[in-house]
Amino acid sequence: MGRKWNNIKEKKANKDKNTSRIYAKFGREIYVAAKQGEPNPESNQALKFVLERAKTYSVPKHIIDRAIEKAKGGEEENFDVLRYEGFGPSGSMVIVDTLTNNVNRTAAEVRTAFNKNGGNMGTSGSASYMFDATAVLGVENQSVDEILEMLMEADVDVRDLIEEDNAVIIYAEHDQFHAVQEALKQQGIEEFTVAELTMLPQNELTLTGEDLTKFEKMIDALEELEDVQNVYHNVELD
């Protein structure tokens, strides 16, 4: 797979934690999920999934509670889920998922982040066809054989299992996230180092020199935008 998921998650969490961006992003996502149905994770699968992800990033309880209470209140704040696709140096591909209450502002900010750093916006589908929607879960203190046996007992198929930094990283089809998680929970596993729905590139690209510098600056600019929830790309980074 070419990706160190625990390392990626740790770097992202450390960078975002310094400015509390990760908490703001989760707060918004929790609010939207809670507004889509009942503000109760037991009856709202979308909310349950977001809370599972928030747990792996150690999002404080008061952030979660505040977002859910806001969703319960009478105040209505509408958000659109939008995806932008584009290109960076040397044919690198980027997908940007956003959650916004101002579409024009978000589109302009994303376009600027691309254009100022050697990239350009593409049309819908221009990059995503080279990515696969994937569920990624990480479990510590288990072996690949142990996890595989648990999943086989539950009759759950996965794409791949890889050992990484004292953890097993599980790659599965996008719609198998809950099946994998529930199968492991039935075996007493409650803690996950990674619990993500992501877009994995079918092939990774290596950049060097000025191209790499521009690309990293572009990704940083995109991730710093308030309305951006996730950025996916096909460049292999340390």
Automatic annotation (TrEMBL):
It comes from Natronobacillus azotifigens. HAMAP family: Transcrip_reg_TACO1 (MF_00693), Transcrip_reg_TACO1_YeeN (MF_00918). Belongs to the TACO1 family. YeeN subfamily. GO terms for cellular component: cytosol. GO terms for biological process: regulation of DNA-templated transcription. Gene3D superfamilies: 1.10.10.200, 3.30.70.980. NCBIfam families: PRK00110.1, PRK12378.1, YebC/PmpR family DNA-binding transcriptional regulator. This is Probable transcriptional regulatory protein OWO01_07855. Residues 82-235 form the TACO1/YebC-like second and third domain. GO terms for molecular function: DNA binding. The keyword Transcription applies. Keywords: Cytoplasm, DNA-binding, Transcription, Transcription regulation. Its main location: cytoplasm. Residues 3-74 form the TACO1/YebC-like N-terminal domain. It is found in: Cytoplasm. Transmembrane segments: none annotated. SUPFAM superfamilies: YebC-like (SSF75625).
